[in-house]
Design a protein that fits this description.
The structure is a single chain. The chain has one domain. Helix 4 runs antiparallel to helix 5 and helix 7 packs across helix 13. By secondary structure, the chain is an all-alpha fold. The chain has a two-stranded antiparallel ribbon. The protein contains 15 helices and two strands.
């Protein structure tokens, strides 16, 4: 909203300083500061309210050290994160941008599903919460909406390469913060609707999902959405549930999400910037640079929430927060055509998911074969395995953070290492 106000003041009255709102970098910085402030200052008030209303976490005794001391800790703190994301986004972004609309929808939709789950656990005293099938249905609906919109919406396009003259024009019209000095020429392509994405570590790293159904002949591109949408659903479901599983010890899901968000912000910046995309020889995605502002608010919100969520946690995010964080990361990666980086960037979530799948599958297999179930890990998800081994929570979290940073750096260098 402030963007439109200051745009009006600048264009109508040439108001001093109003033009700075045209720049993505300024609005991204303001979004990060605002979200950080909201989550830190107003977060305390919400925590006090949750504690007053006795909206606390119910804990199953798994025999983990320090676990039962967490009983009664306020939960549903994901409301802090959601509020700290959406308020700066509404203030500083172009609200008619289709990418921003999709991210707002993702945040509200998964936040609603997570809220219902937490509500059932806390107020209905049902520890199982919302049935898993309903969570999956909600994630499938989100995947269908994102997939169909990306495939059919006229404003969602890509350009593989741009000529120097076009880049100069784009700079002046989109205010990308970059000088208009061009050092190299490239081949011109028009904006196109495409199911192309980026494959890490490959030199010519654009891949079109339509190639997987090339046997359909000339009609392959027309029917690519049949393959694209299930893939979108799979990614959203896997990453959202991975974040949910990771949210098992204080600060783990929050901090790792902040690391992933910072990396995605950088990738969105270069993908939506005509200079950087041309220099890095990656697809240019018109209008996607606006997502830098959204992800800045996301990072600010998660870091601010970490103020209260770090060990020993004063508040838990609950499914309200964890499902939302994972969904945002997944959808954001899909929108900037970097979803195939998810196994690397979101490797922490992947490890947590795999540890549960391996544990369950091996237990069932050995029980069927030997009559007694055996386990690969002392406990799953993976972070509980290390707790059983005697590692302190802060040490586990910090080491997972270090691994997350390493994976983030690997994700970034894929821009050049191919």
């Amino acid at each position: 909203m402030l963007y439109y106000l200051f745009d009006y003041l600048n264009s109508t009255f040439d108001f001093p300083g109003a033009g700075v709102f045209q720049y993505i970098s300024f609005r991204a910085g303001m979004a990060a500061i605002t979200s950080l402030t909201i989550s830190m200052i107003f977060g305390k008030s919400l925590i006090d309210y949750l504690r007053k209303k006795q909206i606390g976490e119910s804990i199953r005794d798994l025999g983990l050290e320090g676990q039962m001391e967490k009983k009664g800790t306020p939960t549903m703190g994901g409301l802090i994160i959601i509020g700290a994301i959406l308020i700066p986004v509404l203030l500083f972004t172009k609200l008619d941008n289709i990418y921003i609309i999709l991210m707002i929808f993702t945040t509200l939709w998964l936040g609603f599903i997570g809220f219902i789950d937490d509500y059932i656990k806390i107020f209905r005293k049902n520890k199982e919460g919302l049935a898993g099938k309903f969570k999956i249905i909600g994630q499938v609906i989100l995947g269908i909406v994102i997939g169909l919109t990306m495939y059919f919406h006229p404003d969602i396009t890509i350009r593989e390469q741009l000529p120097a003259s076009t880049i100069k024009t784009e700079i002046h019209t989109q205010n990308t913060d970059e000088p208009n000095k061009i050092t190299s020429e490239s081949v011109s392509t028009k904006p196109i609707h495409s199911t192309q994405t980026t494959i890490p570590f490959f030199k010519n790293n654009n891949f079109d999902y339509a190639l997987l159904i090339a046997w359909a002949g000339p009609e392959a591109k027309k029917w690519a959405w049949i393959l694209f949408i299930p893939l979108v659903i799979l990614i959203i479901t896997a990453v959202s549930n991975g974040a949910n599983l990771t949210d098992g010890i204080d600060g783990l899901a929050t901090g790792t999400s902040a690391i992933m968000g910072s990396t995605l912000g950088l990738l969105a910046w270069v993908s939506g910037n005509v200079i950087f995309s041309n220099y890095l020889n990656i697809m240019y995605i018109p209008n996607v640079g606006e997502l830098t502002i959204f992800i800045s608010a996301f990072v600010g919100a998660t870091i601010g929430f970490l103020w209260y969520n770090t060990y020993p946690a004063q508040v838990f995010m609950g499914d309200t927060g964890s499902l939302t964080l994972g969904g945002i990361i997944a959808v954001f990666a899909i929108l900037i055509r970097k979803e195939l980086l998810i196994p690397i960037l979101a490797g922490i979530f992947l490890m947590e998911n795999l540890s549960v799948m391996i544990q369950v599958a091996y237990f069932k297999y050995t029980k069927k074969k030997y009559g007694e179930g055996k386990r690969v890990f002392l406990m799953s998800p993976l972070h509980h395995h290390y707790q059983i081994k005697g590692y302190a929570e802060p040490k586990i979290v910090m080491r997972f953070f270090i691994i997350g940073l390493l994976l983030a750096l690997i994700s970034i260098i894929t821009l050049k290492l191919r």
